[in-house]
Amino acid sequence: QVQLVESGGGLVQAGGSLRLSCAASGLTFSNYAMGWFRQAPGKEREFVATISWSGRTYYADSVKGRFTISRDNAKNTVYLQMNSLRPEDTAVYYCAADVLATGPRPNSSWGQGTQVTVSL
User: d(Cα 89, Cα 97) in Å, to the nearest integer?
Assistant: First the structure.
């Protein structure tokens, strides 16, 4: 059974930084593309960034140049470094396993989410 546990969310002022982590278990981590998605209040969940098993990365236009996704296969962990945060980045951030380049698969596994709040 795949388990994904996110951490690192919190409250930060605009312009600040946060680093999210997602620890995975129950799968051969290095074989799978991993991704971060987010859902703001009243909005649908949206793609943020993904990283393939080989390390190729994809980003939503809204975060390109500010966010960096990375993975450590030895630690079964994927990260999202978020810099120059804006109030519109406020959302619950979800980690997902076995994703496509810019979206989830029907059978993607999901974490429970971590709240990121960016204040003015």
Answer: 22
